[in-house]
Amino acid sequence: MTSTTPTPSATSPDTSAVVRPSGTAVVVGGNRTPFAKAGGHYAGASNLDMLTTVLDGLVARLGLAGERIGEVRAGAVLNHSKDFNLAREAVLGTTLAPTTPAVTVQRACATSIEAAWDLANKITLGQISSGIAGGADSTSDAPIVVSERLRHTLLKLNRARTVPDRLKLVGQLRPADLAPVAPNVNEPRTGLSMGEHQALTNLQWQVTREAQDAVALASHTQLARAWEDGLFDDLVTPFRGLTRDAALRADTTAEALAKLRTVFGNDHPEPTMTAGNSTPLSDGAAAVLLASPAWAAEHGLPALARVVDAEAAAVDFVHGQEGLLMGGAYAVPRLLARQGLGLDDIDLVEIHEAFAGVVVATTTAWADTTFCSEKLGLPALGTLDTDKLNVAGSSLAAGHPFAATGARIVATLATLLARRKAALIADGGSPDTPVRGLISVCAAGGQAVAMLLEA
Amino acid sequence: MSRDGEWIGDWLDEPGAETAERASAASDAVPERIETLAAVPNPGAVYLGALGRAGRAIVTTSSLTTSLPDVALRADLTLDRERLDAYAHLVGERALDTAPPGFVHVSVFGLQLALMGRGDFPLPMLGMVHVANRIEQLRPAGVGETLTATTWARRLVSRPVGDGMGTQVDLVTEVRAGGELVWQGVSTYLARSTQISGLTVLDRPEHPEFVAPTPTGGWDTTLRLSKDYAAVSGDRNPIHTSRLAARGFGYRSTIAHGMDTAARALAALGPRRGDAFTWSVEFAAPVLVPGRVAVGVERRDDVDPADGGTRAGYALTVWDPRRGRLHVASTLAHA
């Protein structure tokens, strides 16, 4: 997991005979549900239902029934208090051995990439030899909470000993206190929604409507092509009658996107953010299996790609020092600098499309000499070749069930890298030539996680 | 209709080993005459019909017919997604794309009621107690699958109840997808105070004293949960939801639905039940609500002695931990 890791003696990623240095974690396979729209196909499914179903699907696909996995590490962003032990409860609902330990984690939209990173570290250290990272989120089955006044009163009622005390407490309640409160994912510190935050970032980086719509169009076009090409045959299990991502509009056009009305930043002089270039609220779950190369080989499973390194960043958006979702502009250059790599060394780049503006602003910052030297003390990364970017679509088209996105990206990218590597070798290339992939996932609270994979 | 669980009588503490004969034997005897219905009847409507037919249907002991109708009721159905979600979340299952066996039972329950509500059915629908249930699942039934359910009655027998004799009947339901048998259930009901002469008389079974196993879990029962199960199962027998009605039938309080209790015990086992199995349930003392029950999940190598085999599986027991009274004795035998 560090720059001292020797260059892998990689062979074909599709064979179980892959020889890798010890102290390595590899991505073995993944599974996710198609992502649904909020209130759509999965409206009746809980996070626990969805997490259980993706784990079960992964187990079925990879033949892991009855297996004791080293650790399942998963979470959700919109949490019900009853799901305090979500990951372990999900494990107990699957055909994995009930002796499989599990940890519930949460790092906002970077939850399951964080989980994958943690597991890769444990595998690399030799503490475990297999692990499943995952996440599930339902915006349809979101927890509804009671007002703070009602909650406090109920807690006091529980402690009150006499009837007069109880009556007094009940008498203090007002009808308005009884109204339920729907959860939101506004930033608690600023009170602004993510969209409003991104609108500010777009202003700062002069991100145009056209640039954002181009990202959205590419996401839909490329996700549709990936589905057509069968990329997801090994990565997705249909659930509740949904066989493809519900948000995907294979036939959308630049003209159609240009017609949409703006939904965020409407106080600004020229608002640019629409429902088309912002991720839809979604329901779904994803899981990805990581293991030591030896474990994968013993189980006759592929080592798709090695987890090389990862880096987290957090930015000060509270005091206006940086845009909320700009963490990737920090995490990625720091990660590449530690690895001694540049963008030219990277074959595929996955930037989570929370909003199209995140992709544009992040890549613009990577190329910005002033930004990189002043904020990072590093040379600029240069301009990203968009042919490398989100080649199988991303969150704008697929949807974004918050905690599931990281596992979706890790599994998808590892599969893409393994295929590239296999194609490279088939074309007579050297098995020693690394095929590298880079991930950047921004998250609430000004955070981001970047990860480097290599086939 | 089916009053799951106890009666206040001596047989209560004696789960009937004589009940629910092997499910797979049931398909031998599908009546030739089959009435096809447009859909599985809504249980509520069947109840109302039964209540409307004053007299006989409620609790009478004398009956006009003394044999079972030689007819099967058949209807197509698809398992309802929303109802499955509610059922699964209520009994502690995950709401996946396939249904737990107890959900198939509630989905075809209306056919059973419709058969018992017929004028030529010899027993009073509203006076019957669900004493045993046996389900053989060949594979899980999927949401959205087109299924066909066929229900008929068989094995009308007399059995001792307390100091008198009651009459017991099996309602058999098979569920097919196309021609493929997917699920087969035998529900055994007892009309405690209906006596029909000339029937085979079962011996009073001998039961060992109940010795509670080591608990592996438990749950609280509440009237709210009973009402939720009534809504999701369609089994709105007021004995489960109204204290007044329960007292009218001689219970101190409302009683939990037997199939609810059984389903929660099966959920305690979780995915270890596998896809193909026989799930046999015998109801002993009813679960009085509100209260707390204990559940014990035990691995066994000999869970299905009824068919002479020694199949591997689990014993799932529900009892009252304070009084040491057995509520449900059930087994899950892997196919």
Automatic annotation (TrEMBL), chain A:
Residues 303-454 form the Thiolase C-terminal domain. Belongs to the thiolase-like superfamily. Thiolase family. The keyword Iron-sulfur does not apply. PANTHER family: ACETYL-COA ACYLTRANSFERASE FADA2 (3-KETOACYL-COA THIOLASE) (BETA-KETOTHIOLASE)-RELATED. GO terms for cellular component: cytosol. It comes from the Bacteria. The keyword tRNA-binding does not apply. Keywords: Acyltransferase, Transferase. Residues 26-292 form the Thiolase N-terminal domain. One of its GO terms (molecular function) is acyltransferase activity, transferring groups other than amino-acyl groups. This is 3-ketoacyl-CoA thiolase.
Automatic annotation (TrEMBL), chain B:
GO terms for cellular component: fatty acid synthase complex. GO terms for biological process: fatty acid biosynthetic process. SUPFAM superfamilies: Thioesterase/thiol ester dehydrase-isomerase. One of its GO terms (molecular function) is fatty acid synthase activity. Residues 227-301 form the MaoC-like domain. Belongs to the enoyl-CoA hydratase/isomerase family. The lineage of its organism: Bacteria, Bacillati, Actinomycetota, Actinomycetes, Micrococcales. This is Acyl dehydratase.
